[in-house]
Structures are given as structure tokens and as C-alpha cells.
Amino acid sequence: MRYTKLGRAGVEVSRVCLGCMNFGPVADESTSFAIMSDAIERGVNFFDTANVYGGRGKTEELMGRWFAEDGRRRDEIVLATKVYGRMGEGVNDEGLSAYTIRKACEDSLRRLQTDRIDLYQMHHVDRSVRWEEIFETMERLRDEGKILYYGSSNFAAWNITEAVVEAKYRGALGLVTEQSLYNLTKRDIELEVAPACKRFGVGILPWSPLGGGVLAGTSEKGDRRSRPEAKKNAERHADRIAKYEALCEESGEPPAKVALAWTLANPAVTAPIIGPRTLEQLESGVAAVDLELSQETLDKLDEIFPGPGNQAPEAYAW
Predict the structure, then answer these.
(1) Collapsing DSSP states into helix, strand and coil, what is residue 206?
(2) Which of these, 147, 169, 216, 318, could form a disulfide with 220 (CB 3.0-4.6 Å)?
(3) 3-304, which class in CATH?
(4) Side-chain-facing half-sphere of 270: CA atoms under 13 Å
């Protein structure tokens, strides 16, 4: 396994992050436990979840039971979870108010059976709450030792810039990561989010790096491409995917491995988030860390899945 800094933070994390969203609703408990244990054995020390995964805390509870089986496991990983999504029927059961963040953090700690969250992420921007309220709450949780770092997810570049400015004003570390949708079929963040993150030292954690499974190869079609959104994406990019799979076959590398290696080739990326449902999918995801794509292959991928071509404004203006 290879490791890198978590954005601007000093802690080292594996170049792939184990996404735990499928644990519970898709992978049963025994399979989920086996995947997490195997991930540690393979050197993956970065796990990502969210309070809404599995249905209002169920995935966090499952992970908490796994931690409880062996007290050493918790200290072997950098644990990330998220706050924002609806967790109840109350008016304050979603969002990023100080009230909601504090309660959500306490609830996640209880479900995960841990004393700290290493990376606490805002799952979405909440434009109804002022930054000073959010940062004061995050910094207070840091002072209390309940969280170590915090990051964002699904933020626009100007949201990230606002957060950086507010952090500097407060003398705080601020965001260390941004979790964004990024894969060969979805390259929008190359316009502004990726350049902003690179400029401010915010590490990008791509979610859905396999495009919902459409970039995982024909062997995965029956497993992942049956979902409505993945099926629609596969149909939309059918011609490109055929060319992509032919290129992968020519190179002798599995499509899923190539797709993940492509995200890792972006210097702004810290670690793509893989969401295995089986041990075989975990093995495939981890293997991508050792694949360095040639410039010729990267150029061919750009031809098949053209991105914006440059960052903004050069991508659309002189």
C-alpha cells in the first residue's frame, strides 16, 4: 500500500479509502466485517462512512460492533464520517446548525463506539447557516477531542474558498478535504473545484470513481449496472464505454483498476473512495494503487472521455 497526507493535515492515509456505504443494506454484517478486516490486512487505513448510511445510523452501528470485537482496530485506521442528512423527523434533525452538528457528532460517536472522529465531513453545503456558526462548532469539537480534522463534501469551489477565508480569519486549520463526484464520465470538478482544492491544500476524495459501476467492466454489469442511475449512465456512455473496455483489454488491465488509477493520476486527489460489496472487489480496488498509467494511455482516455480541457475560465474563454 502507498500512503499520502490527508490534504494539508499531517496524518498519513492509504491512497484508497474504504467506502462503507454498502455495509448493511447491500453487504450483510458478516461480509462487511470480513471486508473491513481484509482492508486493514491490505494496508488500507482510511475508512469513510456517514450518519445517514444504511438508513439513519445503521452502517455506523455495524461498524461500531466491528470495532467492539477487537479494541485494536480503531487505532489502526483514520475514521471519517459525515453530518448534514436527515436523521429524524424533528426540525433540527438535518443541516449544519451548531445544535445539529453537536448532536449528530455525539450520536455518531455512540453508534461507532469510539471516543473520536478523525475526519468529520459536512455532507453538503448548508447555505442557511453562517460560516462563523459552523466553524465555531467544529473548532469547539476539536478542542474537546471529539473530532481531529474536518472537511467538506459536494461543495462548489466558491464554498470551499469561503471556508478557507473564514478559517484564516479565525486562525483555524479549516477544511483539509473535499469529497466530490469524480470519474472519467463526470469531470466537472476539473473546472473550478480541483484547482481551488489544489491551491488551498484541500485533498480531494473522489466518490463514485467507477461511475456507479459503469467503468468496472463487463464482468460487473450484472452486479452494479442494474441500478437505475447506473443503467442510465451506462446507456448514455455506451459507445465510449465500449472503446474504454477495448483500451483496457489492449493494455491487459481490468477496467476498474484503470478507472481508479486515472483518478490517482490527478495530483489534487488524496484517495478515491472504493465501495466494495465483496472481498474480490476490495482486492481489485487496492490493486489500483500500484498501477501508474502512461501518458499515452492518459491521452487516449482523454480522447474517449473528454473533460473540460482546462480549468475555468480558460476552458471556455480566452
Answers:
(1) strand
(2) 216
(3) alpha beta
(4) 29
Q: Where are the domains of the chain?
A: 3-304
- Catalytic: which of 3, 53, 169, 244? 53
Q: Output the nine-digit C-alpha cell for 276.
A: 466494495
What was the pLDDT predicted at 219?
Answer: 47
Radius of gyration of the chain (CA): 19
Q: Judge whether 120 counts as a catalytic residue.
A: no
**pTM of the full structure:** 0.93
- CA-to-CA distance for 204 and 271, rounded, in angstroms? 7
Question: Under DSSP, is residue 205 helix (H, G, I), strand (E, B) or coil?
Answer: strand
What cell does 197 get? 482544492
Which amino acid does the sequence have at 300?
Answer: K
pLDDT number for residue 220: 47
Q: Which band of pLDDT confidence, cut at 50, 70 and 90, is reported for residue 35?
A: very high
As to burial, measured by CB atoms within 10 angstroms (0-12 exposed, 13-18 middle, 19+ buried), residue 295 is: exposed
pLDDT value of position 221: 47
